[in-house]
Every structure is written in structure tokens, then in C-alpha cells.
Amino acid sequence: MINFYFFTIGTCIASFLGLVVDRFPNQSILAPRSHCDHCQHVLGIWDLIPIISQLIHRFRCRYCHQTYPVWYCIFEVWSGLLFLACANSHLSLSQLLTLLGAAILGIYDLRFLEYPVVIWCCLHALVLLFSGGNLLMLVFLLLALGAHFFFIGMGAGDFLLLATFSLTFSPSKILFLIQIASILGILVFALKKERDRIPFVPCLFLSYHALLLYTMFC
Q1: SS3 42
Q2: Tens of pLDDT along 9-41?
Q3: Number of Cβ within a 10 Å radius of residue 189
Q4: Residue 195 backbone zone (phi > 0: left; psi -120 to 50: alpha; other: beta)
Q5: Which three-class secondary structure state does DSSP give residue 132?
Q6: How far is it, in rounded angstroms, from Cα 133 to Cα 76?
Q7: For residue 32, is the peptide bond before it cis, meaning its omega torsion is within 30 degrees of 0?
Q8: How far is CA 171 from CA 130, 135, 166, 188, in A?
Q9: 159 C-beta neighbours (distance < 10 Å), count
Q10: Local structure of 109: helix, strand or coil
């Protein structure tokens, strides 16, 4: 029963975070009430139950039948599993917060090629509160400051996220993480038709996620 409780809490938080991704920074996350972006119909409580509502309505609006992105449901399931893992001591609270925050930043970078610094500040402050700072974090913050004023091959947001990762990972794991993310970045760049900027934050997130899974099961 307690596992179901934590899983449900995780899905509800993911549902709210999905709203943040859709509205921030151009709209308020508090008003108006949740509604269908296509027909503008206000959604009722039976339309907002995480996972279940989407499955029952087959990922469509109940009123206009416009399809919803499947990633909402995937994000809710994933978040529920994370909370379940944290409740069973497979993840620390700092790692849980880092994964959730990095996922949001990765979605922003993937969809809009933007890096909402305000969201990163909230994420970093929370993780810092529960884990404490270190020298490697300061190094990445300085690199982020340099990347803001000079072109050094990576964006400032990438270094900011690495600064957060360094709060829960050792320096050796951070180096390994950067190598994995770089390989993923090269693959994405090679597969893209337009060889310009690539969203690198998702690569960092996937690398962090993969290393945590490896740590949990190996």
C-alpha cells in the first residue's frame, strides 16, 4: 500500500511539472484552470487523473477528441517509478530531485532549444540544500560564467546542469558522464539533417540517468 502511495505522489507531481513545461514562462502556472489547448474546454477531475485518464480516453480530449502527446503519460509513469525507488532507498532525495529537474530542462531544450535558468536555480537550490556544495560545483559554475561571455564549445546551461550533477556524483563519475553525453551528442549531430546546434541537455540527462541505473543494479 505504501508503494502505491509513493507511486501516486510521483505521478501527481509529474502531472504538475508537465503543466509547468507547457506554460512557463509565457503563462501563469496557477491560472487559468487546466483546459484543452485545442477546444479550450476546462478539464474536470475525471480528466486529470494521472495516467488513468489518458489511458481511458486513449490520449484524446474527451470533448473535441484532439490527441494529447503521449510523453505526458510516459513522464508520469517514469516519475512514479522514481518516487517508488526513492521510497525503497534505491535513490537518494537529492538524486530524485536532480532527475526530475534535469528531465524538465531536457524537455525544454529538446522542444524549444531554450534553457530556463529560473527552473535550474530552483533545482540547484533544492539539491544543494540536501547534499551540500563542493569544489567541482564551483568549477562548473565558473565555466558556465565563461561560456556566457565566450564561445567555448558548450552552452552555459550545460555547465550549470553539470554543477548540479556534481552535487550527487563523484568527480570520476562526472568525467564518465561527460564522455557518455559527448558520444550521444555526436550521434545526434551525425543523424541530424541540419548540422547546426543540437540539444545537449537531454544527452546529459540520459547519461546521468544511465549511470544511476548502473549504480542501482550493478
Answers
A1: strand
A2: 999 999 999 888 888 877 877 777 887 887 888
A3: 13
A4: beta
A5: coil
A6: 30
A7: yes
A8: 19, 10, 7, 26
A9: 20
A10: helix
What are the E-state strand segments in 57-129? none
pLDDT tens track for 48-90: 889 998 888 888 888 898 888 888 899 999 999 999 999 999 9
Beta-bridge partner residues of 42: 35
Whether residue 160 contacts residue 166, with contact meaning beta carbons closer than 8 Å, is answered with: no
Residues 6 or more apart in contact with residue 20 via CB below 8 angstroms: 29, 104, 119
pTM above 0.85, yes or no: yes
Beta bridge partners of 60: 67
| Amino acid (one-letter) located at 146 | G
- Residue 177 — pLDDT band, cuts 50, 70, 90? very high
Q: b or e along 49-80 (b: 16 or more beta carbons within 10 Å of the residue's beta carbon)?
A: ebbebbeeeeeebebeeeebeeebbebbbbbb
What is the Cα 82 distance to its own chain's centre? 12
